[in-house]
Structures are given as structure tokens and as C-alpha cells.
Amino acid sequence: MPKHLVLLFLLVLLFPGLAMSQVTTERLLNANNEPHNWLTYSGAYDSQRHSVLEQITTENVQDLEMKWVFQSRTSHHFQATPLVVDGIMYLTQPPNDVVALDAKTGRVFWVYEHVPSPDARPCCGFSNRGLAIHGDTLVMGTVDAMVVAVDAKSGGPIWQVQVADPSAGYAITHAPLVVNNKAIVGMSGGDLGIRGFIAAYDISTGNESWRFYTIPAPGEPGHETWEPCTPDMEHCDPEAWKTGGGAVWLTGSYDPETNLTFWGIGNPGPDYAYYQRPGDNLYASSVVALDADTGKLDWHFQFTPGDRYDYDAVQIPVLVDLDINGTVIKAMLWANRNGFFYILDRVTGRFLTGNPFSRINWASGLDDSGGPIQTPQGPGVPTYPGKQGGTNWYSPSYSPNTGLMYFSTWEGYATVFDSAPVEYTPGQLFTGSRNRSPIVGVPEPPAVGRGHINTWTKAVGHGSVLAFNPLTGDKVWQWETYDVQNSGILTTATDLLFVGGREGYFQALDARTGDLLWRAVTGGNTLAAPITYEVEGSQYVAIASGHSLFVFGLRQP
Asked: For 162-171, what is each residue's pLDDT tens digit?
């Protein structure tokens, strides 16, 4: 008998909880009908991150207590959202380990270790945001640009495939999305001059099913937006598309009715030396809608044409059916890094509405088609929002109960943009940045670390959790933090909102009012999003913070 089957037999014998049911395509399509589980990175294909579990309420949330903690053995940033399947939790610890745990007690069943190639050089840390599952197969992307399949019961390897060259900066840091027996992944590395793409791999074999390049080559639709150089264009690169960026580093969404999968695309490269790449630079800083079976582009919408601010549009597409004046619109909600909140028709890509949610001076507004009316600031003048954006990768949540969208924001935050020509070197940063903080001598807020202690001032920015009405474009309430905010958000049917923060706390707010109802100390910066699940009739809430995963449940009498 093969070794991995022997191991599986022993594991199931010792730990009967491992005898879970297979996660079929049907279960993934109906994930919202299994609120006791958390089957995808964003909870379900619509990416609303909303749970209908009702045991933990606004009345008893103050009775939450810590039930167990998993301490990661890594010093890298812990950004993972776990999956929960029939009482088993699957978690990635950076850079690329997979851990199976008892979701009730935290007991570790097995650990799969992937040792990244020494050629790996991801731009922004050795991070991994999670897994996908189909059948008994877990799928993970790696920082050395591989896709790995692991047996969910035994932790044994099934297959692995090299997707791209890690020495050139290609990496996979997001959780894959499984649709129709295919694991879909995108490449990160947009700050290192990659040419981005999204690809799908057969769950059973690892064979590539399709590939869509986010930066079109000559002859492909969209390439005309990489305009040719003219003699008066100093530093212009006539082949800028080859190092054009367009990374994908957050998990997309999927609409079964149209069979379209939606993915946010990162910045063009080089990030700030825009004069090296004249034009709008499709499909950078855009959302693309792809046929899930073929990878063929159905439609696209570009949020920031010719992006010179690193406002990459990798945010999570949230799919909602909105009732607008008696007409149900199949909408996509998008809080963009550029500071505008968009509603798009997710069937056609048509722009419906757009409103600012943060301070903006890089554009005076949006035109009738949703394009920004750009107002670049002069030398030395702060641009709002700054390079990290009004929001970023932190997962939002939409509550059907309140009709509100919730997301973490950076407030009062600006960058003085400046750039210099940059030459491409494989595997090296390719940004052209000479940016600085608006306040001389005070550094900008770090992208993922805590705010500077001895040199910090709130004048360079602070954080908030924002409740936003998509239909009116109004801020309903705002809950502010002293440091800037990197945590994703979870809402529940009992009008609770769970969110972490950089200041070492995990808290529950009233989703209708923004009132603080409960707080726990985690002691670490939160760079992930919470989930909730249920085991044996008890509801739990989990969050990765610092270098550990914390799980909370109601205190038992």
C-alpha cells in the first residue's frame, strides 16, 4: 500500500474528525448554505464575507473568550484566512506550510511543508493568504511561483507545477479560487517588472487549462493602450509592455449565472516613472471579467488609466444584487485604492455610480463613463490618497441586513510623489520611486508593519473602519483608530462586525452604529480577515494576528 494511504488510514483511525465529506462543486456553489463552514477565502463566491450564524449576538458578544491559539513558527507576516470544512481547519503559515487543525480545540493533525526555492524574491514579503479546496484536494500558491496540491486528509503531496520564474520576481501570494474543477491563480511581482497573468489548473492533474495575460502583447486587444514612443518622449521604453506589471495578488470572485470570474489587476510598471510607458496601460489598475472555462476576456473596466500613483486595483470584487428603484441590478461593489467607491454592472462591466470615500485631489471627480478627471499635483505638493491608497488589500464585507459595505481605510494620508527613470533588472525593484512623506523628517506609515513609535504622528495618517451606503454614496458611520488600518472585516446576521488592527486588538462593533461592543488583546498587528464557523453547536470567530491565530467563543456557564 502506498505510504500516503497508510498515513491516511492511521490518521483517520486516530482522529475520526478527519473523515470529512468531499467539498464538491455543488457545495462550493452553495457555500452560503453551510454557514458552519468557511469553504473559500472570502466565504463564498460572492465575496461578501457575511455569515448568517446567529449564536453570537450584540447582547452576548461581551461574553466571548479565547478558546485556543495556534502559534506560527515563522517570523514572516501572518496574513492567512483559514478554511473550515466539517470541523477541520486548514491554515497556511508563511511562507508556504499547510496546517490541518481541529477547529474546536486547535489540535494539530498534520503539517505539509513546502520549502521555497532560494530564487524566490517576492516584492513585499514571504506571505501567503490562504488555500482553496475541491474534493479532498487543497491547493496553494507559493512564493516561488508554484501551484501545489495536497491531500486534505493526510497532508501528503498530490502534484506541483512550476508556473513562472521566481528569480524574475514572479510569486503567488493569494489564495487560489476553485471554479469548475479548476484552480485559478494570478502572479504577484508588479513592483519587479513582471508581465502579469492569470492561469487555471486542473485540480486532478495540475495541467494548465488556460492563461490570460493582464498586459497584452502586440496584436492582442488592449495593446494599443501601450502607446508608441515619439522622439520628444525622453526615457520612453518602446517595449514597456514586456515589463508592464499588472500583478494579481488577491483572490477573485465568481458569478455562476454568467460563468464569469472577476479579478483585480495591479499597477503598471514601472510604478511611478509613468513617462517610460505612455498610454492608459491596460489591463493594469483594472478589473477583468473572464470566462471561467476558457479564460477569455468578456469585459474590463479601468479605474486609474495610466496609473502613476501605484493605485493598483487588486481589491476584492464584492458581488451583490441591488434593488435600485424597483429594478434588481446584478452589481459589483468596489472600494478602490484610488479613493473612489464604484458600482459596476457585473454582467456587462457598465459603470453605474462612483463616489469618493476618502480625501482625493489626484482627480476632481469621475466622468459619465466612470473615468477619472485627473488633476496631477505639482512638484512637492501632497497627493491624496497616498501611495498605499484610501484602502488596499484588506477584505471588505457587505451585510444584506444593513445594506452597507464595510471596509478599512487610511484617512488624512498623502504622499509627495516624485520619480526617476529606472532600468529594468530581472528580480530587482522596478518602481522609479523618489516619493516621500508630506512632513519632512516624519516617515510615511509602513505598508504592513506597525506605525513608527518614536517618530510617529497622526498628521501623516490614521485608520478607520467605514460603513458606506452604496446606493447613496454616503458614509453612515466611521470608527477611527490611531494607527493606520490593515485588517479585513467580517459581518454577521446578528449585526456584528469583527475587525482587527495594527494596535494589537481584535474587536466587535455594532454594524448599524459603529459602537464598540467588545475587545480582546492579541498583541500583534492584524493583516488578515476574520472568519466565523460552528462546530458541535458552538460558534467560533478566528483571526490571524501577529504570528498567531486566535480563536474565540462564548464563555460556557
From this structure: 999 999 999 9
Closest CA to 112 of 23, 5, 4: 4
- Alpha-carbon distance of 251 to 81, in angstroms, equals 11
Please state the rounded mean pLDDT for residues 119-134: 90
Active-site residue, from 151, 310, 312, 483: 310
Torsion on CA atoms 413, 415, 416, 418, rounded to nearest 10: -170
Residue with cell 506571505: 127
Q: 363 is written with which cell numbers?
A: 482627480
pLDDT, tens digit, 9 for 90 and up, residues 512-539: 999 999 999 999 999 999 999 999 999 9
pLDDT in tens, 39-72: 999 999 999 999 999 999 999 999 999 999 999 8
d(CA 363, CA 105): 51
- CA-based radius of gyration for the chain: 22
User: Is 310 an active-site residue?
Assistant: yes
Q: What is the CATH number of domain 3-554?
A: 2.140.10.10
- Identify the three-state secondary structure at position 244: coil
Helix, strand, coil percent values for the chain (each to nearest 5): 10, 35, 55
- Written as one letter, the residue type at 69 is V
φ/ψ of 111, rounded to 5, equals -135, 130
Which among 163, 137, 176 is positioned nearest to 24, based on CA atoms?
137
Q: H or E segment at 28? A: helix 25-29
Could you give the CA distance from residue 354 to residue 115 in angstroms, rounded to a whole number? Answer: 44
With a threshold of 0.85, does the pTM exceed it? yes
In 142-221, the DSSP E strands lie at 146-151, 157-162, 177-179, 182-186, 197-202, 208-213
Residue that is written with C-alpha cell 455594532 in the block: 510
- Residue 362 identity (one-letter amino acid): W
The pLDDT of residue 29 is above 70:
yes
